[in-house]
Amino acid sequence: MKITKVNVYRTTGLFVKIETDEGITGYGEGSCFSPQAVAGMIEELKPYIIGEDPRRIEYLWQACLRRLFARGGPVTGSAIAAIDMALWDIKGKSLGAPLYQLLGGLSREKVRVYGYVVGHSAEEIAENARRVAERGVTAIRYRAFHDWDAIDLHDHKRAVFQQVEYTEAIRTAVGDDVDLIIECHGRYDPDYAVMLAREVERFRPLYIEDPIRHENPQALRRLRTQTSIPLATGERGHTKWDFREWIVDGLVDYLRPDVCWCGGISEMVKIAAMAEAYFVNLVPHNNWGPLGTAASVHLSLAIPNVALLELPCSVKTPQELKSDVSSPYPVVENGYVLPLHGPGIGIEFDEEVAESLKPSPKLLPKLNALDGSVRDW
Predict the structure, then answer these.
(1) Topology of domain 101-345, per CATH?
(2) Ranges for the Mandelate racemase/muconate lactonizing enzyme C-terminal domain (predicted)?
(3) Which of helix, strand or coil describes residue 207?
(4) Catalytic residues
């Protein structure tokens, strides 16, 4: 079997199609951030995979990374992730087996999921959290500062106060049986991250996610010594080397690799194995694209040290989740997602719909502090 063609679809997300001379086609998904750059990198990588056997997944992963002299980073990681996912899809289809079987079979029968809630006031977000909990979801992730995003403003102190207010309201609404995940998106300077952690400890969150920027992993040590709350990071990590320091130096309790960013299915398996040796669990980040969601479900079923999975199905109905380009959708029952049993990734991709959709680039908020300096989104 040989790869004959590689196509890129830029729609509401970024998808790749890999064709073979035996008529088996695989589909993958990359990051929806910087889609033009990721699509361009896939074009750069085409010569390294066309004409090759798609079942040599590890060889092609290595070729896509190491044939590049200047390599690494989110664009390369996302491009390789999309290609890697399509190769696993081809392999599963060629063998008539779902992805989780190729990864060693089910390490669990279902995966606990968490829901993500938003709100423009403590009352609104608490009510939204209560509704999610009523569906059987036992973990909820949330953040504050949505209103400030709309006006491109971030104020550390006000953000801390609002996150404390939201946390108290949600805990009151859902009780003690639902785990709370406080999302910070890397917004805080370390001093304010410490302030937040001290203020919310009494609400017993499962963990605080991305309390500070990710560029200097050792900065987490300062926060780690001043709070008992577990820490999580990793959604912006690309390849195993980005994750190594977090794992080996014991800087976090949970890792958040995203299959569409971290280098793909092949790389997430390696990240998980490295983390398992240090008793660090994964809570895979999921950018909510249809193929990435399906791949995340398969990975979370097969990888032994997955604690939770981010899944849009946990907070939306099947009607709300209807995808323009793919089906079916993972089934969630009582707060757990069930396996997809179709071959490969296990979902169908509608090329005609994909070709008819125009790209929808997403401009992130251009946040500034009160003094006009640039802040992270």
Answers:
(1) TIM Barrel (3.20.20)
(2) 122-230
(3) strand
(4) 185, 285
